[in-house]
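Meet today's protein:

…
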Amino acid sequence: MKTMATHWRRILTVFVTAQVLLVVNAFEEEDVPEEWILLHVVQGQIGAGNYSYLRLNHEGKIVLQMRSLKGDADLYVSDVTLHPSFDEYELQSVTCGQDIVHVPAHFRRPVGIGIYGHPSHLESEFEMKVYYDRTVVQYPFGEASYNPEEMEANQKYSQSTEDESQDEESVFWTILIGILKLILEILF
């Protein structure tokens, strides 16, 4: 009876181990759409508070899929600067897990990619997969309804008018506080 219990315990242990391995393998294999073509795999290490920079020259819609193997690496992307940072970027992904950024086809090439080692870890290791996205986007109102350059110009105009009104408000408050300080000094 005792040998039979040991036998079943071994079978149960093997079964549970096999199930755990299946679950782990399912999590490790990424579910990537068939429209994505793998172009590059980049692995690297980055120290806490430091940047590592890459340059993307490939045209079209690109998907950057990065995961931190150790520590926490964050992803910053720009078509304006080749050295994007947490202060200057157009696209970002700053999760503690997998970071994904979809680089649109209209971004000017070369595109700057900044990988930042978060200060919460002395060193971070990362693996980034670069995919070409062949997905065809169907515009419901025709392609002419979406003009990225026009949208960008409109966004910059609205941001500049907001900035101007904030600047005017800031000057107003600075002057008002200065006058109040002067009055308080005269009174006391």
